What does this fold into?
Amino acid sequence: MAELMPQELRVLVAVAETGGFSAAAGALGLTQSAVSHSVRGSEAKLGAVLFERGRGGASPTPAGERAVGHARRILRLYEVMGAEVRGAGRAAQGADPLDGVLRIAAFRSAALHLLPPALERLTARHPGIRPEVRVVREIGAGTAGEVAAGRADLGIATLGAAQDVPPGLLTGVLVEEAYSLVHPAGHPDPKALPLMDWDENCGSYTRAWWRAQDWIPRATVKAEDDAMVLTMVGRGLGMAIMPELSLREATAAVDVTGLGPEGPVRHVGYVTTPESAGTLAVRALIRELRSRAG
It folds into this structure.
């Protein structure tokens, strides 16, 4: 099988991101026929149809999604190669070798509470690193999906949740968080209140514990995120079962009660690709995250 050239990879990514051959041509400064020819050539080389063509444009097939993800990751390696080679030249002159953009995906509470101290230390040690953090909802493909698709160098994810980490990615646990009962401050019988929940809550991988609790009703209110749940609980509208990171924003309007040694826990960790795991910037960030976690 013939290998795809960097320009062919750029075309695949552009078609996927713009949703059509004409738009990709405009983004790349090419003609539409050149883009069409490149995609057909890539499909012939890979032996699979990569895009569904239609009046509305072009959308990746499942094979195309994989191809585009790999294309982004390969193109990212070209960028990292340049940055690290230039960094080696600076290191030979006694300067810091780390430089360039570091792309991170994280779910909301991790982006608020887990990343900032690690990034503060990282950028203090390596001022040339420019973190770009995207907040991603931890449902569906979640942050691990961003890494697999080549849109992030490292993701902060909930590990062991319903969504499996895509094959081939590397993970490491950073924090083990206990869940607690959160309820309006001073309420005499919080377990009698309606249950509030949100889509990202990770009860799925503690399902056995949840099933065994006959006092937990079906959720009657689904909020947008954990911050909204905390606000609603604080206003006396219900109770919730939440992990420690989410409870960093708890106010005096709520009380937090532990669920005991048999209560549910969740594992929060990093997800990256094997190739990114070997880069200087990602290795430095993982060290800072582990230092924070320890």
Observations:
- The radius of gyration is 23 Å.
- The chain has three domains: 1-95, 96-175+268-293, 176-262.
